[in-house]
Amino acid sequence: MNIKAFPRLPGAHCEQALQCFFDLSEHELRVYRVLLENGPTTARDLADLIGKDRSTAYRMVTPLVEMDMVIKDTRKQKGGGIYHVYEAKDPKTIQAMLKERIDSWYVMMKETVNRTSEELTG
User: Fold this and answer.
1) Residue 30 sits in which domain range?
2) 63-109 per-position pLDDT tens digit
3) Which is nearest to 69 in space by CA: 15, 12, 6?
4) Dihedral over alpha carbons 61, 64, 66, 72 (to 10 degrees)
5) pTM, entire model
6) What's the CATH number where 64 sits?
């Protein structure tokens, strides 16, 4: 997380907070929005929606799955094989996750500040 990247001015957007506290790229945030707008989507369909190849779409959605912002559902194909369907979590859920991350960061920073005097004096 790069807190310096988060704007200190009034009017900061939620996207900036998500990028900062979830360490998201603009492309990953775009993938989340596309999934949110289009509902459950395969990597192949996601690739078409974002104008990238399937492997790039898969690489872009994977961090979102790892951060628990997107659900990955594995399904079986007729005749064998599997495929994955990706679905963005509800924005209210993401909002709660963001609040938790900010609260955790705040507690960690307070603990760090409280140790400043003893750490500086050795």
Assistant:
1) 14-121
2) 999 999 999 999 999 989 999 999 999 999 999 999 998 899 889 98
3) 15
4) -60
5) 0.80
6) 1.10.10.10
